[in-house]
Each structure stands twice: as structure tokens, then as C-alpha cells.
Amino acid sequence: MRRTFVSMLILILFLTASNAAAADDQLPASAIISRFQQYLQINTAQPTPLYRVAADFLLAEAESLSLQSQTLEFVAGKPLVLLKWPGSDPTLPSILLYSHTDVVPVEHHKWSHPPFEAHVDPDGNIYARGSQDMKCVGMQYLEAIRRLKASGFNPVRNIYLSFAPDEEIGGHDGAEKFADSDVFKNMNVGIVLDEGLASPSEEYKMFYGERCPWWLVIKATGPPGHGAKLYDNSAMENLFKSIETVRKFRASQFDLVKAGLKAEGEVISVNMVFLKAGTPSPTGFVMNLQPSEAEAGFDIRVPPTADVESLERRIAEEWAPTSRNMTYELGQFKQKTPVTDNFGRPRVPTTGSSNPWWALLEKAVQKAGGKLGKPEIFPASTDARYFRNQGLPAIGFSPMANTPILLHDHNEHLNQAEYLKGIDMYESIIKAYSSYVEHPSKESSKDEL
């Protein structure tokens, strides 16, 4: 009887110790997720992002990690937080871990959970605007550095982290001014990591270039008249002809993707985003009056390999011909897509083993247990283009495998297990990048990369 009692006591003590140990193991993970949730809960949605609140949060995190920090404001009210972990050899080109703090607007009533509560469902999915685009990446940088510091690791190269404003509206008051600044030049950056996309498969997506946005507005004019009369060259009819022409071009590009002949980032995408016409009335629109003006807006994304002169001719001659009383505007968000950078070198870098940064990243991801897919051109636009224009290699990478692509979508979410795995990836990458010392001279490296 006494032996049974002693055995039971030992078993209880063992289970208690095991549970305590398990709890200790879970505490770091829960703290990591909690910090991610805090960042997600800061409403930085355009057009009125709470940039100051986000900056204060990030600066507090930097202080907890003993990172050097400064806040830059190229435009008042739009802070860019820049952090630094000094390396032992500051003469070597540095590493820039780039992210943006703003997110796109939300339609609150179309979300299953409030988009700024960072709710975690029973399956471990964290619902929040920015969970994929791209607050996850910014926090994963910090968490990876937290681990590396705790392990006693010391980088050879300087490591910079930047949290920039306004990416979702073109980056003109954030990354563009930052990349052109003396502050950036003095950082001696050798490689930039920026955002990528989630991957529905087990392979992570990696991007070596991106499409640039052309935001096109086509406007048609014509005679106003009675709603019952058939007119030639009415505004609505001419606009519809243009919309149909654009639709056929869109279908021809989409067919290449659906047939597997090209990746999404390799074709010119066109999507109509607004249609504006009609004469307003107190109850809606005047139904028996044909409007004298009509316009439509299109979001066009152009890959770096496209013939931009041919596209411009197509817009002028087929989509908005003056012969049909049409005009068009390519607004401030139109980005020319040159095949060379500001120094005349190719903008699309080598992605094989001859590119040391690419090869280092591949090995680091594999070492952390990840799998990589085929290198791609990013189908949308990121701030990375401003650094590529400076002649720098910039790789798009957001470690989210087995995850639906939900950036800018309702119910954007990221599973907490995938988020934690992503930290493993960045820990391995940052360690590999910041330890790399067999670097050629500055000018030759830019030529090669």
C-alpha cells in the first residue's frame, strides 16, 4: 500500500513538473503572438493611419532589444522608423530589412471578426488587416533578432530595419524619399529584403522583380440627349467600346496565365476599378437623360520585361482614341518601367548561384526546414522598386506557406503556427546574410547583382 502511495506521489510530481515545463515552453510563443497582436491592433489603415502610435510601439520594441533607433520625417506626420544593429565590420555593405507600417482600408461589416482586434480563432488563425501585408514581416524581423541576441550571436555586417509609411498609396512620401536621401546613402546598403506573398502550397514564394502600376482614367464625351434616342458617339457608347477593347486585351493576357505559358507577374494585368457616369437626382439618377460625360478607371500592372512604348500606343490608338471623342490620363501613380536602373544596369538580377545574396537566402531557408518555389516577378507593386532603381538587389520574401493569399481581401488572416515558422526563416536568413564576408568590391558587386 505504501509502495503504491509513493508511486502515485512520484507520478503526480512528474506530471506537475512536465506541465510546468510545457507551460514554460509555451510562454515565449504566447508572448511572441501577443506582440504581433499589439502591432496589428494599431489602426494604420489609409487614408488616416495612426503612424505616431505605430512608431511609438516600434521604438519601444527597439529599446527592449537594445537596438539603435531614429525617426525620420521626410514629410511631416509620416514617420519612418529606422533601427540599427551594429556589426563588427561596418565597412562591409549592410543589410536592410524593409517593411511598411500602413495597411489598406477595410469594409468592417464584411469581416467575420473585427479587423483591428487581431482575433485568434480555434484553429489558430489571426484575423487582422495587415496580418499578411505586411505587419507580419516587420514583427518577424524583430522576433528573429530577439532570438539571435538571446543566443549570443554578433553580426559582422550592420543590420538595418526600416518601418516606412505610405506604401499602400505609392510610397512617394516614404520609401521614395528615403531611397534618395543622404541617410540612406550613408547606410551603405548591399541587399534589401522586402515583402513577398503568401503561398497556398508548402513552397515559399520569392520575387526578384515586380510589376509597376499604371493607373489609367479614360474619359468619353458626347452629346446629351433624351434617354429614348439612339445617338452616334454618345459618351456612354464610346466608353463601352473602349471597355470591351480593354476587356479583350485582359482576356488575352489572362489566357497565357491560365494555360501555364506565363506566370501572373510576367503579363500585363488590367482591371477596371471604377465607372462614373450619369446625371444625379435626389432619388438616384435621371433615367431619361443620356449623360454627356463618362469615365472609367483601370489598374494596370506592367512587368519589367514589357514593351512600354507599345502599351502606350495601344492606349492612345485603341483604348482611348481621339476619333471617338476620348481622352485619357495616366496619373501620378504611373511608374515607368525601365529595363535598367539609374546607373544603366539591368534591373532584373541574376537569381542563380552567381548571385551570392540569392544563394545565401536559398540555403538559409532550406537550413531552417523551408522549401522554395521558382523565382517570380511580383504581380503587384512594392517599395522595393525604389531600391532597385538605386542599383541594389532587392528580394521579395514573406514566409507564409500553406496560406491563402488574402492581402487586401476581407478576413485577411495568418495562422500563428506559420507566423512562428516565419521567424525561424528570418533568424536563419539574417544570420547568414550578416555573417557573409566574402564580398567583392562595391562597384563590381552592383554590376553582378
From TrEMBL:
Q: So where's the catalytic machinery, residue-wise?
A: 102, 167 (proton acceptor)
Give the note describing cofactor binding and stoichiometry.
Binds 2 Zn(2+) ions per subunit.
Signal sequence residues = 1-22
User: At which positions is Zn(2+) 1 bound?
Assistant: 100, 133, 195
Q: What does the organism's lineage look like at the top?
A: Eukaryota, Viridiplantae, Streptophyta, Embryophyta, Tracheophyta
Q: Which GO terms describe its cellular component?
A: cytoplasm
Which residue intervals define the domain Peptidase M20 dimerisation in the entry? Answer: 210-318
Give the record's family classification. Answer: Belongs to the peptidase M20A family.
Keywords linked to the UniProt accession: Cytoplasm, Hydrolase, Metal-binding, Signal, Zinc
Q: What class of enzyme is it?
A: hydrolase
Q: Which Pfam families does the record cross-reference, listed alphabetically?
A: M20_dimer, Peptidase_M20
The name this protein goes by in its record: N-acyl-aliphatic-L-amino acid amidohydrolase
Where does it localize?
Cytoplasm
Where does the sequence pass through the membrane? none
Q: Which InterPro entries is this protein grouped with?
A: Aminoacylase-1_M20A (IPR052083), ArgE/DapE_CS (IPR001261), Bact_exopeptidase_dim_dom (IPR036264), N-acyl_aa_amidohydrolase (IPR010159), Peptidase_M20 (IPR002933), Peptidase_M20_dimer (IPR011650)
Q: Please give the Gene Ontology molecular function terms for this protein.
A: aminoacylase activity; metal ion binding
What NCBIfam families does UniProt report for this protein, alphabetically?
Ac-peptdase-euk
Q: What is its EC number?
A: 3.5.1.14
